[in-house]
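Entry:
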Amino acid sequence: MVVLLCLLLGGSAYLYQYGYEMKISEAELQQKINTKLPFSRNYYVMFKTTLDNAQLELIQDNVRIQFNARFESLNPNSLLNKLIHGSNMPLLSGSVDVIALPEYDPETGKFFLSQAKLVGLDLKGVRNSKKYEQSVQKLVVDYLARHSIYTLKETDFKKVMAKYFLKKVRVQDHELQLVFGI
């Protein structure tokens, strides 16, 4: 207990005097996201939506992610499916563009993307993809809420201290920059 208190006080003094900045590259974040895909959800017992092949781009103060998306009918011959789509629902695919903000959870030491906003949905062969936007928005928000993009590991003393003293998260120069201090 005394050792932990000494480490905490020493680390606090270090952060107060020198601060600490950590940079996470776009490539490192891309690699983390790719390990958690594909991600699928079923909706209304009618169709399955899958996100795959994320392309992450760090832009000033935001994170942009483009996913490949697929919509598949779970029961193409159902009466409800035929009423909604006029016939069997075709397999649809396309791309989804999302912009979100990086957010830090100090209890877990994880970074998530929050306040996700769908900024583009392009489905091949579909002129008006508006009826799919709500499902895609739900899927993307669900995915981003469940899957962190980075975790501060507790193996490095500076990172342990930083976990409790994060001051600012920003996206700059295609990097996620974490600024720690008191």
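The chain has a mean pLDDT of 76.
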